[in-house]
Amino acid sequence: MYKKRRAALLLALLLALLLALPAGGARAMELLPPDIPAPSAILMEASTGKVLYENNPDARMSPASVTKVMTILLVAEAIDSGRITMADQVQTSENAASMGGSQVYLAPGEIMRLEDLFKAVVVASGNDAATALAEHVAGSAQGFVGLMNQRAQQLGMQNTHFANCHGLDAQDHFTSARDIALMSAELLQKHPWVTDYTTIWMDSLRDGAFQLANTNKLLRSYKGTVGLKTGSTNQAKYCLSAAAERDGMQLIAVVLGAPNTNDRFRSAAQLLDFGFANYKLISLPVDKLRPVPVRGGVLTEVPITCTPNEVSAVVQKGDNREITAKIFVQEAVTAPVEPGQKVGEVVFSIGDNELSRGRLVTADGVARRGIGRQFVMYLERILMVSP
Hints:
Elements: H1 2-20, E1 40-45, E2 51-55, H2 68-80, E3 89-91, H3 94-97, E4 111-113, H4 114-122, H5 127-138, H6 141-154, H7 177-190, H8 195-198, E5 202-205, E6 210-213, H9 218-221, E7 225-233, E8 237-246, E9 249-258, H10 261-278, E10 279-283, E11 292-295, E12 301-302, E13 304-306, E14 312-316, E15 323-329, E16 333-334, E17 342-350, E18 353-362, H11 371-385
Parallel strand pairs: 11-16
Antiparallel strand pairs: 1-2, 1-9, 3-4, 5-6, 7-8, 8-9, 10-14, 11-12, 13-18, 15-17, 17-18
Helix pairs in contact: 2-5, 2-7, 4-5, 5-6
């Protein structure tokens, strides 16, 4: 009798659990985020910008040498655009040589290959090397700072103002965890070759006479670490922008104002663990897209495509609900049409939650019709309708 009653109770409980599931599939469980002993932190997926965790992410704080993420970004952009090269010979100014804090002890007038200066910044956080690179790119350190602030605005870094290129404490020099994640993602996604340098553990300068040791200890302790930048000053305390990649998903964990160096690395590792354990990056299907009609062009329609790096989203593991896509496209475009011209977007959702948006753009260009061609097409239409 007791066994029958227990079996009936278990069956009722199982039915209740099944009825509680949504019709579209299993909904993911509510997650318990890690407890981070820092006043500001964020966890972001790099390719989509999806925020997976945040704690006071927009607080304006001193970033210390994490500032150099922007310095590295501007140098990388200058390299990729061909304005400078890794083989450039850079002469150290009096100003660069005078920088205190972390340094590689550049002497006034010393000439060093740009690649070595780049390693000195990325690996050893050299303030003198950062200043030398800034002067080489922009002509002066202050000119470079102007470029830093301009780029910050372009990236939507709303709580950032730079006063220098190295991160030493200064009045009116601040940023936020969210803004650091934005510029870190821009660097890693647009200039992936930078990880060849951010993952260097040990190296040397001046024919082996000066040793470089990476300040990011996660390179040795956390699987998949690809960067990025540490920083610490009396005002900023201990800061870190850490990046790691597993199973095709790249996460950025930013920790600002940690009380000690162990806490910043431990906090970043906890955030990354939280992200990799609970989320995954998926590719989103896009149905076959119809061409868009073209007005006044040499062609009557133009094929469209979805921007590749936006056809992905981060979803919680265990959330098996159906993903839907809604496509919004212009009825027609007017020639001339440029390749890559935006004509609409696709919105991906899971349940009532929007996952991601993809830009729909023209795959080709279409020139404007000349007057003669318009006249010929007009005659063709008349002849086609004539009895």
